[in-house]
Amino acid sequence: MAEPVNTPMPPSTPVPASTPRSMSPAPPVPNLSPNATMSAMSRMFPPPATGRATPKRPVVLHIGDPIKYNPGTYAEFSTEFEVIRPDAAERERSEFIRALKERRWGDFSAIFRPFWGTGGEMGRWDAELIGLLPDTVKVFASAGAGFDWVDTELLGEKGIIYCNSGLAAAEAVADFAVAMIISTFRHLPWCMTAATFPPPSPLSTDPAHTDARAREAFQTCHARATAASHNPRGHVLGLIGFGNIGQQIAAKLGNPAFGMRIAYHDVVRKPAALENSLHATFQPTLDALLQASDCVVLATPASPDGRPLVTASTLARFRPGARFVNVARGSLVDEDALADALETGHLAAAALDVHANEPRVHPRLVRLATRLPAFDGEAGGETPPPGSGRVMLTCHNAGGTVETHVGFEELSMRNILAVLRGGEAVTAVNMGVLKR
Questions:
Q1: What average pLDDT does this structure show over 257-263?
Q2: Are the C-beta atoms of 112 and 74 separated by less than 8 Å?
Q3: What is the mean pLDDT of residues 365-370?
Q4: In what order do the strands lie in the sheet with 236-240?
Q5: Does pLDDT of 127 surpass 90?
Q6: CA-to-CA distance for 170 and 430, rounded, in angstroms?
Q7: So what's the pLDDT on residue 31?
Q8: What residues contact residue 365 under an 8 Å CB cut-off, 6+ apart?
Q9: How remote is the C-alpha of 297 from its chain's centroid?
């Protein structure tokens, strides 16, 4: 799953991929509109001069569904390359391995995965799969921002550039994050659940009792949610990761819009001009960021060592009553520890778009999202724990817009066109370990 056309951010010099957490500073944003064949990307990487001998076109292995949004760019793409698309049965891991061993698709030069929902049937790209790739492969370009399903370091050691498409999803994820951040300050799950409690049931034998419970839930929320809600303005928003997504969140919620004060931590500090333009303050350590923040947003695609970044010890260093939002990867959070922090009231609220065991959502977090706080109308008179009704849970929807999918297609093709024409990839993530 993934995360899965951006408002341009201030351009800056890309950093090596040895710092993959931020995926930034953001490169100049290409035009990712449908069929952007005359975009800045096209001018940056023009087609070969006419008349040049091309006895054999490079082969591109297209895994997943056919192109849907960018037929113009695909016409350019398929004219320049021989595109081979294995069917769904051939993409199952055992058959895919057999095909690679047989050299069924010959000496292909690139792997192209334009959609996040298909093309992953072979499972994780690990040593078993990567070791079978022909030495002719130069680039693997995929939809999606996360890349925990592929060993990018091993690809780099084999001389293969891996390109993600996080740039295409950045605006959608940032917009979604804004809604989730506001939710943690205004307790939207509590307000929404109370307005529809209890759900209408045709089996109800006591409509009067049901109506009384509904009115009590509504009135309780109306009276008490105000005492727990705050305006975001003036509060410190702490961003873990300050790449394309983090920068766009800062632009949307900082001064003068929502008036939040922006702090960030990243493995590499951003240029002063970028910090000044976004009114962002760098915190040299994660601890410093947590201690300074009223709401912490996880916006980094991976942790340096592959282990959870938000653990019980990390959560203990959050300010009492702080808020937490995750639009990055579910595997970066110890969800039991997060539930503990919410149940004890150490965290006031949370919002999670990604989950450690998707499509299953942690049951304690589900309970915290659906039970109403300070409401004794449940059977047995049980009072839910302090965190109840203050957790927003969504289904890995942050990057999911039509515009994002258009950008996934366009950017994946542009990355392959750039590399196979001898230029530089647009969104490479493993250049720091590339060996060629």
A1: 96
A2: no
A3: 93
A4: 280-282, 261-265, 236-240, 295-298, 322-326, 347-352, 391-393
A5: yes
A6: 19
A7: 53
A8: 335, 338, 339, 342, 350, 352, 391, 393
A9: 12
- SS3 label, residue 431: helix
Q: What is the pLDDT of residue 380?
A: 39
- The one-letter code for the residue type at 360 is R
In the three-class reduction of DSSP (H, G, I as helix; E, B as strand; rest coil), residue 315 is classed as helix
Q: Assign a CATH topology to domain 40-168+401-433.
A: Rossmann fold (3.40.50)
Q: How many CB atoms lie within 10 A of CB 175?
A: 16
**pTM for this predicted structure:** 0.81
Task: Quickly count: other Cβ atoms within 10 Å of residue 161's Cβ.
Answer: 27
The alpha-helical segments, DSSP class H, found in 162-302 are 166-186, 188-195, 207-228, 244-253, 272-278, 286-292
Q: Which percentage of the chain shows pLDDT scores above 70? A: 81
40-168+401-433 against 170-393: fold identical: yes
pLDDT, one tens digit per residue, over 73-88 is 999 999 999 999 999 9
The yes-or-no verdict on residue 185 having pLDDT over 90 is: yes
CB 171 within 8 A of CB 248: yes
**Domain definitions of the chain by residue range:** 40-168+401-433, 170-393
DSSP letter, residue 282: E
202: which 2 tokens? 């045709």
User: Reduced to 3 states, what is the DSSP secondary structure of residue 142?
Assistant: strand
Comparing CA positions, the residue from 414, 432, 361, 424 lying closest to residue 168 is 414
192-243 pLDDT, tens digit per residue, is 988 988 766 665 567 777 788 889 889 989 998 888 899 999 999 999 999 9
Calpha distance 16→24 (Å, rounded): 9
Full DSSP string of 399-421: T-SHHHHHHHHHHHHHHHHHHHT
DSSP-derived secondary structure for 68-133: -S-HHHHHHHHHHSEEE---HHHHSHHHHHHHHHHTTT-S--EEEE--SSSS-TT--B-HHHHTTS
The residue ranges of DSSP E strands in 147-270, in sequence order, are 161-163, 236-240, 261-265
In the structure, what pLDDT confidence band is assigned to residue 385 with cuts at 50, 70 and 90?
A: low
Candidates 261, 254, 255, 263; CA nearest to 234 is 261
* 331, two tokens: 């595997």
pLDDT given for residue 198 in this prediction: 76
3-state secondary structure of 371: coil
CATH fold label, 170-393? Rossmann fold (3.40.50)
